[in-house]
Q: What sequence folds into this?
């Protein structure tokens, strides 16, 4: 599974595919929780920009910047979760 594919893996899917030591399960759940918070924040900010920015060119640029920041924020957490799940 690639980092991008893991990016949209649900918590239930990740938990069911986890086969590592039980003592690492709290870390896995913590990483999943952080990713969910980042995802939720991104969706709220994206919705806000979509509603409030009137000019299409400004909106497109703001949305592109938001998405770039979003992906950057998630990257390390997804990498760590991938490592826990045993995915390269």
A:
């Amino acid at each position: 599974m690639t980092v991008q594919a893991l990016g949209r893996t649900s918590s239930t899917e990740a938990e069911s595919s986890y086969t590592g030591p039980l003592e690492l399960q709290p870390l896995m759940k913590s990483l999943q929780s952080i990713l969910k918070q980042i995802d939720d924040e991104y969706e709220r900010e994206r919705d806000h920009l979509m509603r409030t920015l009137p000019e299409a060119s400004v909106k497109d640029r703001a949305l592109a910047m938001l998405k770039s920041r979003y992906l950057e924020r998630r990257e390390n957490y997804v990498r760590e979760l991938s490592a826990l799940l045993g995915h390269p």
